[in-house]
Write a structure and sequence with these properties.
Layout: H1 7-13, E1 16-19, E2 36-42, E3 45-51, H2 55-66, E4 69-72, H3 79-88, H4 115-122, E5 127-131, H5 136-144, E6 151-155, H6 164-177
Parallel strand pairs: 1-4, 1-5, 5-6
Antiparallel strand pairs: 2-3
Helix pairs in contact: 2-6
Length: 184
């Protein structure tokens, strides 16, 4: 008979949902009436945003259903907790720091500037990454990086932002890869 894992060990294998902001929660055009126009600040600058207040509860529901942990993987870094979370109904989330201020130094790198930071942060945990800007090179980098386990990149359409279909795909994948909390 198997014994439940202690909480600290369960957290170490709990799947992740990595969330980008621009193009994912903030699409490049307003897809429908449920989206609101607002202003948010990051890095000392103000930005016009289009956010959907339904996204927070929907992401929380996916996390609860699959046992996953929501994590920011965005150049908004900690500003996402201060500016985005309250507007869409999310609590403060862990943040993968991605060198926001140095992102333009990496324009000619073979992978996006966030990818090496994500690879170092996940520590073997399965994850779904909701992003609009990743390429096949990012996926190959992650697959070849020691310490990166199973993952799924969901390529969000930056004109629509995250959709119910994206969330259903994340839910299905995470359900298959969820930590059970039991040893074999």
């Amino acid at each position: 008979m198997s014994e439940p894992l202690p909480a600290s060990e369960l957290d170490a294998i709990r799947p992740l949902i990595l969330i980008d902001v621009d193009g994912v929660l903030n699409p490049f055009r307003k897809p429908g009436p449920e989206w609101i126009r607002t202003k948010c600040s990051a890095g000392g600058r103000s930005y016009n945003m289009i956010l959907n207040p339904e996204h927070g509860p929907k992401l929380l529901a996916v996390a609860a259903e699959t046992g996953a942990e929501l994590v920011w993987a965005t150049t908004w870094e900690h500003d996402a907790n201060r500016e985005i979370s309250p507007k869409i109904g999310l609590p403060g989330l862990p943040v993968i720091e991605v060198e926001r201020d140095n992102q333009h130094l990496h324009l000619h790198d073979p992978v996006r500037h966030k990818t090496p930071h994500v690879a170092a942060w996940v520590k073997g945990r399965p994850f779904v990454w909701l992003d609009d800007y990743l390429t096949d090179r990012d996926e190959a980098y992650l697959r070849g990086h020691e310490g990166v386990g199973d993952f799924l990149i969901i390529h969000v359409d930056d004109g629509l932002g995250i959709t119910d279909d994206d969330l259903a795909e994340a839910t299905a994948w995470l359900t298959e890869h969820a930590a059970t909390g039991e040893e074999a």
